[in-house]
Design brief:
30% of the residues lie in helices and 44% in strands. The chain is an alpha+beta fold and 263 residues long.
């Protein structure tokens, strides 16, 4: 019996390593993004970030990205956004999440970011002259998402953010002054993702965001009035990932999106 318990315990301890074996982190970075000083906050629990985020707001930072990976919430705080006011909320039940989003949209806030992690849905709101008339759309499959994107493009609305989790595809639509054109693609592998980014860079597009869900990548591209200098980091070692970000910060790049995926 004791031997069996040792075997079971060994399997349990080994499982996290197996789960993370093909996992990797991605950071999109750009120059000419308008973002200034940045820092990254990390905690295992979302609630533990509240004090640090509040302190960041008091120091003139705003949330420019929010991400969850195994065992870690990450928040990118940036200066230079010209955001007038910002807040975030989180709920576990989808109906409650949709209700709180609807409430803040009626309070003249705009929804700019949605993230899911360990059962929590997080929404970031702000008052910003560059983004207006935002809307949350929740669908169950990718074809429904494509239909929503087509419908909003006809209405001259652009896609601001996408999140895939718990069997949902979440999309945030709105008006964004600086965006001249927009495209998106879906692909299943890291290799295709990287080739697609290179292809659209050559066409003058910037990478707005990456989202991995349901075993596929959703890549959103924007075209601005001028081409931005961009790069990205991919690493399966978090310490190395953070060191690379610091290196690019010193070279004048700023994080525009964080993502996580599997090989």
């Amino acid at each position: 019996m004791l031997k069996r318990l040792h075997i079971i315990l060994g399997i349990i301890l080994f499982l996290p390593s197996v789960v993370l074996a093909d996992f990797f982190w991605v950071a999109l970075l750009a120059k000419e993004s308008g973002l200034k000083e940045q820092k990254i906050l990390t905690q295992t629990k979302l609630d533990n970030l509240a004090v640090e985020i509040k302190r960041g707001w008091e120091e003139g930072y705003t949330i420019t990205d929010l991400s969850h990976s195994p065992r870690r919430w990450s928040v990118v705080l940036s200066k230079g956004t010209k955001v007038k006011h910002q807040l975030y909320v989180h709920r576990r039940i989808m109906q409650e999440f949709k209700a709180i989003v609807k409430y803040y949209l009626t309070q003249e806030y705009d929804l700019v970011n949605v993230e899911n992690g360990v059962g929590a849905w997080v929404a970031v709101f702000e008052k910003n002259d560059q983004i207006k008339n935002t809307e949350l759309v929740v669908v169950r499959d990718i074809q429904e998402l494509k239909n929503e994107i087509d419908k909003h493009q006809i209405q001259k609305n652009i896609l601001l953010d996408v999140e895939a989790a718990e069997g949902y595809w979440i999309a945030v639509f709105g008006k964004r002054v600086a965006v001249k054109a927009q495209k998106y693609i879906l692909c299943e592998t890291k290799e295709v993702m990287e080739k697609s980014i290179s292809k659209y860079w050559k066409e003058g597009y910037s990478v707005q965001s990456l989202e991995y869900g349901n075993n596929q990548w959703f890549i959103l591209f924007n075209k601005y009035s001028s081409v931005r200098q961009e790069t990205y980091i991919v690493s399966d070692k978090y310490v190395k990932f953070r060191k690379l970000i610091s290196t690019y910060w010193r070279e004048g790049y700023r994080i525009t999106d964080l993502a996580e995926g599997r090989k």
